[in-house]
Amino acid sequence: MIRWRRGEVVRIRREWPGAVELDVTTEEGGVRALAYPALVGRPEPGDTVLLNTTALAMGLGTGGYAMVVALPNRLPKDPQGPGHLVKARYTPLQATVLGADEQDSPFHETLREADSLDGMPVVVADLHSALPAILCGLYGSRPPGRPRQEAEGEEEIPAETGRGGPFRVAYVMLDGGALPAWFSMSCAQLKEAGWLDGVVTVGQAFGGDVEAVTLHTGLLAARHVMGADVAVVTQGPGNLGTGTRWGFSGVSAGEAVNAAAVLGGRPVAALRVSEGDLRERHIGVSHHSLTAYGRVALAPAQVAVPELPGDFGRRVAEQSAPLAVRHELVGVPVDGLYEALGGCPVRLSTMGRGLDEDLAYFLTSAAAGRHAASLLS
User: Fold this and answer.
1) Domain range enclosing 279
2) Pick from 49, 70, 91: which residue ends a domain?
3) How many Cα atoms within 13 Å fall on the side-chain side of residue 219?
4) By CB count within 10 A, which of 13, 28, 167, 246 is most buried?
């Protein structure tokens, strides 16, 4: 089940908050490797590293990386401080974190009583790559000068979270893709640019600015701990799909709609739409969206349907129509969104396709952000 390799660090290629990218030599040649210093310590040139090369050898979704499991000759110091939530439980790399909802947290009392999102818009999408595009639509339509929602216990929010913009945006990361939030360069860059106030990791996902046990407490933490005015929910980078109706990790999008609704939020469903995907099941409105929102989501959401031009736009509208049985379909103009996407502070990419290679995908995600912005005015 695991391909183990021993290697030696040649050089550090680059790094971003929570992750270090390395060149490593093994007996089979050179590989790119990724280490999370909080888990394994910080590798340096000359260090021996133990690698998991399984997904790399199979060509699966690790971004072309071997993963550093340990520095066997230079172990990191024992962790200090509170934290009793165990994530990646009962795996060799299980780790303890301080959850916002656990008893030792300064936010425990707030979350013990919290039961409502107070109408906060919650934009739900299938893929992690939708996140920056949603923010482009959100900020492209941002009401100027709107007062920011003040966070509960402001001084307790980690200092590295963003502070940009007239309202707060939290990203709530599900555990259907990558488990460490550190894997996402997009999150790090969006926070640095001030487009995100922070990341909440829920379920088995970890490494966010705020940790929570479930999606429900993660959404409540986004609202009452981070003071978010709007939350975006997707799985982490990566996606598991089998080409079957139910066998894909994006079913969690439907469950996220339910969670947002039961907590008194306003769920906004972002469709997964593609004109560039070669797989028929993802052309137009993906079967992922039709299943997650049409079958899994039992609570009503506002589904942002982009007003795309031509025959493809009509196809998207027709494919979306059955969702009206349970949800409110909201037509969203896409004029000006291409320019907004062009100003994104991170590289836009989905399944290896950039903005102009799958424009419909990014316009659709941005349309959901545009609609969420209209709910804030």
Assistant:
1) 108-376
2) 70
3) 31
4) 167
